[in-house]
Amino acid sequence: MPSPATLSDQGSKALNSQNYAQAIDLYTQALRQTPESPDYYLKRSTAYQRSSNYASALRDAELAVVLANKRGKRELIGAAQLRRGISLLMEGKLGDAGFCFSEAEKKASNDKDKNLIGIWKGKLEMQLAKVDEDDITREVTVKEIPDVEIPKVTGEKKDGQTGLSEKTVAQAVTPPISRPKGVVTPPSKIRHEWYQTSTHIVITIYVKGVPKDEATVEIQNTSLSIAFPLASGPEFTFDLDPLLYPIKADKSSYAILPTKIEIKLEKQIPGQKWGDLEASEATQLIGTIPLPTTSATPTSMAKVDLPLYPTSSKSGPKDWDKVAKDLTRSKKNKDIIEGGAIDTDEGTEYDSEAESGDPVNHFFKKLYKDADEDTRRAMMKSYVESNGTALSTNWKEVGKAPVETSPPEGMVAHKWNS
Q1: With the C-alpha atoms ordered 96, 98, 99, 100, is the resulting torsion angle positive or negative?
Q2: How far is C-alpha 155 from the geometric centre of its chain's CA atoms?
Q3: What is the CATH number of the domain that holds 239?
Q4: What is this structure's pTM?
Q5: pLDDT in tens, 26-53
Q6: What DSSP line would sit under 172-188, residue for residue?
């Protein structure tokens, strides 16, 4: 078998080449021959950390701290504490990481080491700025020298080299990969935020230490479901079903990070404005009606003499100014009749609905008759575009975009056949 020095040299080359699995194997072989080498534990800890095996990285770093203190080498102790702090930071244990960085700083004897520690302390400060002052991750639960068992030499090999029994090697040299116990953030502290762009909805759930292998994230075109275990036992769930509007599930993504979960949902209709993440009962009734992909803006309306607006009508876009003028012409005809300019029976026919027809319909006609131009346009646009389910007198609001259909409770709106 190659000597520990040769194995370590090969391990360093594998580490620099980002071949972390090979580096771990080579350092493990070296440790079987030299089980009390803090330097080999430090290097293997680095390989574990870069391959995202933070539990094993921490185990090796703690063994390095104990062995370095046993040898009394100041510089080696500082390097081991720094590596220990990095592993703790990766696990989301911010208070413990800060404690180890401070211990490493005490042992730093040159500018290079001090600068490296400063970089990691800066990363820690960025994480601390994102959590509350009473967050559990700020607590310090570690001490200067961890309570870990140092691997012991059990006998002499035939070639004169010391080594460990196979059982001891399995227990002490290869750090056990601990199964995640769940997040450390209390359920009451877990929170989420969201924002939107013209093409995406981005949701961030702030929670520490979510185990990737035990978390489930299901993204569907109309729903989102996230679940992960808590340290206290029960499972935490975050469900949006149904979403306010459909999304493109196949083009959406998520990432589970040490301090949060980020979800990026691609909108099915670019430019669509979301007022919330989850649909209410009212929006669920019209969830099958796709929103128009174009809409007029107040600016464009001001520049066009005869504005046309999106509509679901079979006859196509409406010239609302023309509609308003036509109805105003009817009002003027009524005034002429009542004034006696035309002596016909049309006046009686005009008022017949008010006398013997639907009084509610007559009320809205009278409301329209007495309104100004903008109010009339708002009433006509909202009534026609909503398929008779909505009536608004606010042109500033109605003129901005198409009016959605709002069917009565228990009814479902369907798209017009084209």
Answers
A1: positive
A2: 55
A3: 2.60.40.790
A4: 0.42
A5: 999 988 888 888 899 999 999 998 888 9
A6: IIS---PPP--B-S-GG
